[in-house]
Amino acid sequence: MATKSTPMPLSLQTGHDTKGNSLQTPTSESHLTPPVTPIGKSSGAEHSIPSPLSTTDTSSASLNRNILLRFTEDLEACTDGSNRRIEYGRGAWSIVYKARSTPSTILTTINTPPSSPTAKSRVYAVKAPLRKDAYPVLHSEAITLTRLNSTPGFENYVVPFHGYHTDTSALVMSAVPLALSTFIEDQADMNRKRGPSTATMFDPIQGPSAWRDLSRKLISGLQWLHKSAGIIHGDIKPHNLLLRPIVQVTDTTHLDANAEPLAFPYEPLFADFSSALDLQSNSSDEKSHTSMSAFTPPFTAPELLSLASLTSGDVAPTPASDVFSLAATLVAAATGDLLLYPGSSNMQRLAMAREGHRILEFTRCGANGARVPRNGFVERLMQPAVAKDPAQRIDTSEWVELASA
Ligand SMILES: Nc1ncnc2c1ncn2[C@@H]1O[C@H](COP(=O)(O)OP(=O)(O)O)[C@@H](O)[C@H]1O
Ligand SMILES: [Mg+2]
């Protein structure tokens, strides 16, 4: 893999810790041209729709209440054999590409020895804005990630965040290059190649224990997000969940005869907090500038898709809408169909998404409907999470209990 790269602008930050980042309150917003020209594959692209209702107001008054972790090392984009940047993915706001940290040269003077040869260069995933109105969205996401990454337990549930790279207005994260959406598509492909099997046709596509394990982990993650971190995600869907492989230690001196292979050998991590809301904030101002910055119809709770909510401008995600979106994500994981609803046109599918409380009924009409049988374990775990009235939807603590039953 080639690593010849185009240096990105140098960071001017000085005080930094060994990971190359520092905690600061934000100062002013830099509005630079996005550092990369979008290139590469588009097939993995997700399709959030930046909402016309979102505003791009991130007044410094509201931002200064918050702490921002800054990434202070220099970054070089990694490139392939054709000198093109290696892209991990892209979404409504951004392009995420592979980059390497380089020892900072800005502080080197004639009297200072060159950067220590022992300084390690690391690989990161860098999320850079794709459009002008993405700058405040990413800045606000960096503040949310700073807070999440300082909440105990984050390492189990959230993509590791290394800081906001001021000069490029980009977020620096650990690279976790497998999105749940890709995993679901790969499972569906493998399944098509294997051909139909009566033995497994009533099971989730990755097998019952893998699906249950995935569900337990994600539902626990959502409980942590709402109850420990106090954050509403706002755009939960398979494209915004990343899978970190679990390395199974094979220590031959401690062989456990009963050790079973892991049902689902990944830790699912929440990513993309560009639509997130702070549950503790009572400020309607803050809610209005971050809420519904992007939404993806099939995974969005029906109450947020009604014409009334969309036109009133009073449309904001809630813990209950996150619960719905996670349930829709888990239904897609079970059937292997990222479109969720059967139907020949987007309009037809949107109409069904607006009736999202009937998601299991609609799914059963689709090609993989047998995988969510009536009264089966998928239905029992999903039904209380898709209730029409958001107030009637299961709370994450009860949902965790149901998932572990
Ligand atoms: N830390 C990461 N490591 C590897 N790939 C990532 C990482 N973060 C995001 N991606 C990929 O990039 C895509 C877009 O990132 P996302 O944060 O969802 O941006 P947007 O807010 O524009 O939707 C994701 O769907 C995923 O495929
Ligand atoms: Mg996204």
From TrEMBL:
Keyword entries, A-Z: ATP-binding, Kinase, Nucleotide-binding, Transferase
SMART domains: S_TKc
Stretches for region Disordered: 1-59
GO MF terms, alphabetically ordered: ATP binding; protein serine/threonine kinase activity
Keyword field contains Nucleotide-binding: yes
Domain Protein kinase residue range list: 82-405
Tagged with keyword ATP-binding: yes
A Pfam family per the record: Pkinase
InterPro entries the UniProt entry points to: Kinase-like_dom_sf, Prot_kinase_dom, Ser/Thr_kinase_AS
Membrane-spanning residues: none
Full protein name: Protein kinase domain-containing protein
